[in-house]
Write a structure and sequence with these properties.
- The structure is a single chain.
- This protein has 297 residues and is an alpha+beta fold.
- Among the domains are: 66 residues, no CATH class; 74 residues, GMP Synthetase, Chain A, domain 3 (2-Layer Sandwich); 56 residues, SH3 type barrels.
- The chain has eight helices and 13 strands.
- A hairpin with a 5-residue loop joins strand 11 and strand 12.
């Protein structure tokens, strides 16, 4: 087992493990660490703990020291310089007439590099821009193209739920989200209802997916012929979270009625009536997959 601490460099950013060495590092401390990009200022969000070698990337970098007052001053100064660099770069982008949108600027703690994050529809030839920026800032320049989900994470905003976007608040990494999840959760496949601020499928579709997958294993499909306490019937609708179904049942007196049952009250016969179609979920015949296919990553 190896002793590590988890450090973030941005709010809701990815957590990286570091070796605390002999330093008494505690949760919520601010530390100076060595990274592949150079010396960085970070926030300890996972206190000292032991992990297996499979959970780390060797060789493990070390924590150099607990952040001092002058380190905080340097960090604040870098934030201020980053805002000024953003304005300068935006002007240079306009001068070079480049089809790119500048999103954020970041100085490494040791001022060894300035990183400009941008979005663009395709490849951008920014070689002349880099030369201009290098002559102004006189340090290493990196232009990094990011996706629309990363842009939303950096900028932030309020989602359809009325809450600050999850990616800005706490999501360290993006989980894959698919149209299949929206179908299995019986959601409308209207792109405006299942897409986030970034224009991609909402990350929150992933939160309940495991529960839906577990429940759907027990749920019959619309059209399945089942045996109910009232007689044989055909499933006409399902309510996954409630674990209930609606079935058209032929009663003993020869009449038919649509009744609701808990899943554990019915028994599937293994037969299927193709004349019935699922009103919602993964067999929605009225939805056009091509309308929402572009929402996936």
């Amino acid at each position: 087992m190896i002793k590590v601490v988890g450090v973030r460099f941005k709010k809701a950013g990815k957590i990286y493990y570091f070796d605390p060495d002999e330093i008494e590092v505690q949760n919520n401390d601010f530390v100076i660490v060595e990274t592949a990009r150079g010396i960085e200022f970070g926030h300890v969000v996972v206190g000292p703990k032991e992990v297996t070698e499979d959970e780390i990337v060797s060789p493990l970098k070390k924590v150099l020291r607990i952040a001092l007052d002058e380190d905080f001053d340097t960090h604040r100064e870098n934030k201020k310089k980053a805002k000024e660099a953003l304005e300068i770069c935006e002007k240079k982008v306009a001068d070079h007439n480049l089809e790119m949108k500048l999103v954020d600027v970041e100085y490494t703690f040791d001022n060894n590099k300035v990183i400009f994050y941008f979005t663009a529809d395709g490849r951008v030839d920014f070689r002349d821009l880099v030369k201009d920026l290098a002559s102004i800032f006189r340090t290493r320049i990196e232009l990094r193209q990011i996706g629309v989900r990363d842009e939303a994470k950096m900028i932030g905003g309020v989602g359809p739920c009325g809450q600050i976007t999850c990616c800005t608040r706490f999501l360290g990494e993006f989980a894959p989200v698919s149209i299949k999840m929206a179908k299995e959760q019986s959601l409308s496949l209207n792109p405006t209802k299942i897409s986030g601020l970034c224009g991609r499928l909402m990350c929150c579709l992933k939160y309940e997916q495991d529960t839906y997958e577990e429940l759907l294993q027990k749920m019959p499909n619309v059209g399945d012929i089942v045996t109910t306490p009232q007689g044989r019937g055909i499933i006409v609708d399902t309510y996954t979270l409630l674990e209930r179904v609606k079935a058209k049942v032929k009663l003993e007196d020869g009449t038919e009625d649509i009744l609701q049952f808990q899943v554990d009250e019915i028994k599937r016969t293994g037969k299927y009536d193709s004349s019935y179609q699922r009103y919602h979920g993964n067999n929605n015949r009225n939805s056009k997959d091509e309308d929402v296919r572009g929402l996936e990553d």
